[in-house]
TrEMBL record:
This is Uridylate kinase. Pathway: Pyrimidine metabolism; CTP biosynthesis via de novo pathway; UDP from UMP (UMPK route): step 1/1. It comes from the Bacteria. Keywords: ATP-binding, Cytoplasm, Kinase, Nucleotide-binding, Pyrimidine biosynthesis, Transferase. It comes from Vogesella alkaliphila. The gene is pyrH. Its EC number is 2.7.4.22. ATP binds at residues 13-16, 56, 60, 163, 169, 172. It is found in: Cytoplasm. GO terms for molecular function: kinase activity. Belongs to the UMP kinase family. NCBIfam families: pyrH_bact.
């Protein structure tokens, strides 16, 4: 008998950097196809998937490229970068046979639907993947915070933070070979140990609304499926 999924509806937070692969900038086609392949696997299991995408592979409001700029202007540019990534992701999903919709927190009617909570919920229930672009639509908030917000609005079972590292470690595993991966952590433990799971605003939102976070590597083949099945993959941050 096949294993039952541990979650019905998930919010996947993808960084813009995840789309770069080994490139120094932009979108790596092979990488985006690998990510979409993992998403297709869980959609086929009947999982409802919402995605919040970052824009750091193109432009980031707090990056050196934005030095000297008005912070709000730089952040709006970063939001537009997330829309570019969302369109690329949707295109790759369409080619893979998935039905996806892009909803943007900034109005861009020619290329994306405006974010409407009820419509997004309907799409998820219909089995469509919803890609939430342009962060929260407000400067000074990260896409991590947008992911926490959309996760709560969509009533997801868990937020999955896809990174290049397969969980949260006691130390940087690239620098310290003795670093150990945490299987589970409470929100309070993560704070007291100063573990940078995500930015403080997003983290506080998830803790206050009791939305658990699973940190895992999107670059491990089959990792997303293992997370959805509730297997020991990545690190679970819980209340």
């Amino acid at each position: 008998m096949s294993q039952a999924p541990a979650y019905k509806r998930i919010l996947l937070k993808l960084s813009g950097e995840a789309l770069m692969g080994d490139d120094s900038y932009g979108i790596n086609r092979a990488t985006i196809e690998q990510i979409v392949g993992q998403i297709k696997e869980v959609v086929a299991m009947g999982i409802e998937v919402g995605i919040v995408i970052g824009g750091g592979n193109i432009f980031r409001g707090v990056a050196p490229a934005a030095a000297g700029m008005d912070r709000a202007t730089a952040d709006y540019m970063g939001m537009m970068a997330t829309v570019m990534n969302a369109l690329a992701l949707k295109d790759a999903m369409t080619k893979a046979g998935l039905i996806a919709r892009v909803q943007s927190a900034l109005t861009m009617q020619q290329i994306a639907e405006p974010y409407v909570r009820g419509k997004a919920m309907q799409y998820l229930e219909e089995g469509k993947v919803v890609i939430f672009a342009a962060g929260t639509g407000n400067p000074f908030f990260t896409t991590d915070t947008a992911a926490a917000l959309r996760g709560m609005e969509m009533n997801v079972d868990i937020m999955l933070k896809a990174t290049k590292v397969d969980g949260v470690y006691t130390d940087d595993p690239k620098k310290n070979p003795d670093a150990v991966r945490y299987q589970t952590l409470t929100f309070d433990e993560a704070i007291s140990r100063n573990l940078k799971v995500m930015d403080a605003t997003a983290f506080a939102l998830c803790r206050d609304q009791q939305l658990n976070i699973k940190v895992f590597s999107i670059f491990k083949d089959g990792a997303l499926k293992r997370v959805v099945l509730g297997e020991d993959e990545g690190t679970l941050v819980h209340c």
